């Protein structure tokens, strides 16, 4: 019963953190608030949450990685693929080697393989943590796309390196050739399994629903199960379940372009996934805070075994690791940008030098978060011979300290660096939106005209004028987008202003409708069933304008 109470307290802490972070008079990242609430829970209940590492990994990572792959902007991913790959792959290896040797030099009692495991698990960055920090200071979109792409790929590369290091710690041996071949297999097979599984499930779902129908919530539940299925299937063939979950998410973003899902299902699915993402990320940070006291106690014992009696050495280790991570990231980003500039000059391509604030912002944005926590919690409890895994509690504590310190440094340093920072211009978003609206308007008018002819063939003679008038009104809703295509820039600007004004008026009208329906329901002039149906219709209409 106590475990259920702790779990409910954690969920309540996740909900409360969202309100608390808005009530504070100063800007504080949401993950830090959740960590603090987790520490409070540990102090109140005097009971830690013990999870099997493999179960912990399975419960939290697949849906988070799947959602990252699903929602990341693919055009930005392809446009900045060079910078993203340099950060996601090259920087991870650079970090694992550099920080691994640094940790082993700082803590000689920690085996080399464990030091490299710690370096590997602190290499992935977390865009959710960055977003929470920059919520009150807008981050340039292109920089955010690069950070999201880096996080999407370095989750996989960092966690794969982590698994190799843990395997070396368990077996006491490591082969670079064997590791390289294994990496190729787990990466390629994992990606292939994720893609194939998602396509197969989507095809099967479509075939079954076309021939037998389906329950309204089935597509949403299937989308929730896909990342777990892809992960488990990849693990069965000894491939990377991490990459399988990422690949499943990327594939899902292309599968849904078929547009076969009902609009209401898409709206509901988005709400469900937003809730899952908020809950999982929040619970992970609350868990981090909840386990912080026990990790600190175990880390102090590990420090004592290494010959240091003063617990302040823990702070020295944590600061040294964070400084090492920051300097390695800064050096890598600077070298990468210099190479890109030289390459552009060599090809005769004009390129502007990046602002120094962009360089520092990109370096400080390497915030660690949920993935680091999830990975480090999977450290085995025992070695194959039954002895405790060396320095496990110290490793968990140092990973936790890296998360906390990187959040603090970024929350203090990023806002002033990002304020007023301008990146090279983005592709013309307004032009793309206008193109999509005009194409959609043409298709809508053609569909209305086709439906009008079909209805007129079946309609009685007396209803012809009714259908014609209705078709004219519907076509008029789309005609102004085609008129804008041929209008001058001033006329187009005026039309966009009119659209904005119409949007505000429609939102006001919908709010008035909703209040009237609620008023009738409160006075029992209409039934609850009728009020729920009408309010749902109004809510769906409002979603168009939000």
Automatic annotation (TrEMBL):
Q: Specify where it is mainly localized.
A: membrane
Limits of the Cation/H+ exchanger transmembrane domain? 13-419
Tell me one GO biological process term.
sodium ion import across plasma membrane
Which membrane topology describes this protein?
Multi-pass membrane protein
Answer whether the UniProt record assigns the keyword Amino-acid biosynthesis to this protein.
Answer: no
Q: Name one GO molecular function term.
A: potassium:proton antiporter activity
Mind telling me which PANTHER family this protein's record contains?
SODIUM/HYDROGEN EXCHANGER, SODIUM_HYDROGEN EXCHANGER 7
Q: What is this protein called?
A: Na+/H+ antiporter
Question: Which organism is this protein's natural source?
Answer: Rhodanobacter thiooxydans
Which taxonomic lineage is given here?
Bacteria, Pseudomonadati, Pseudomonadota, Gammaproteobacteria, Lysobacterales
